[in-house]
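[audit] Reproducing an earlier prediction to check determinism. Same input, same settings, fresh worker. If the tokens differ from the archived copy the diff job will pick it up downstream; this log only records the rerun itself.
[audit] input (328 residues):
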Amino acid sequence: MRRRHFIVGLGLGAAIGPIGAQAQQSAIPVIGFLDPRSPDALGERLRGFRQGLKEAGYVEGENVTILYQWGENQFDRVPDMAADLIRRPVTVLVASGGPAVALKVKAATTSIPIVFLAAEDPVRLGLVTSVARPGGNLTGINFFSSELVAKRLELLRELVPKAARVAVLVNPTNSQNTESTLRDIEPAARAMGLQILVLKARSSREIDAAFASVAQDRPDALFVGGDSFLDSRRVQLAHLATHHRIPAAYSGREHAEAGGLMSYGSDITDAYRQVGIYAGRILKGAKPADLPVMQANKFEFVINAQTARILGLAIPLSLLTAADQVIE
């Protein structure tokens, strides 16, 4: 059964009908926040977003209204969700959930300002014409680079020094992320003398099937690509990786907090804070075309020591020293 959630205020779900009219009457601007996942998956990120808004002078429920739409992991609903927000109308749209979401929201409107989060080059994706001068009605935060993929693989290899074959799990539905992950990891793997085995999963059932392949082919380690769907299945991934006793590396700290072995990537909470700042600046009159795409500048390396013990791995002192957090 399909469900549509409009969450206003601090995560309270309510079906709001005349919110556009109310906003116009009270002169309070409305932000449309769209994400194909569920709100449960974005708790810390939403706190970062609200913090950024506060830094820009806006507090939800006081001088700005946020109209949330959640896809409940039904990614094909994004165009309808965007169209519904545009009809409200909203002052600015936040496209959360990756470049595929941003592209679909971009296709829905050329007039309403859009702030996006992209895990790769937004110019190559066609989101903006230039990082410095985006043009059009979009700007946002780029929180990913090819160096992060290579670095994550390097850290995984250091944690599992005898690894020779590494499985790479990607979501084929997210073609942009899949292509960039494979493009970046293959030369890095060759340089380390590693053989790559590509696994694909676009549903919970396919994740189970991918781990069945792991059990059969027995790679030495697992590299999970950065992807909104895979992020939302982090508990399942951590459980299966531990069950099959395969060391795994992930892109975000939420995976390590859910029981994943290690993560290395951009500080996503801070990236959402930057999105909040940009949304606030647009509410004050700034044009997306004049706001350069920001590059994430905070990175986190997290190790789950408890998972390492379960897997029988000794964490090198060099990694313990380098980690931003060691979860005991």
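[audit] rerun output stored. Observation attached for the diff report: Residues 1-25 have pLDDT under 50 and may be disordered.
[audit] end
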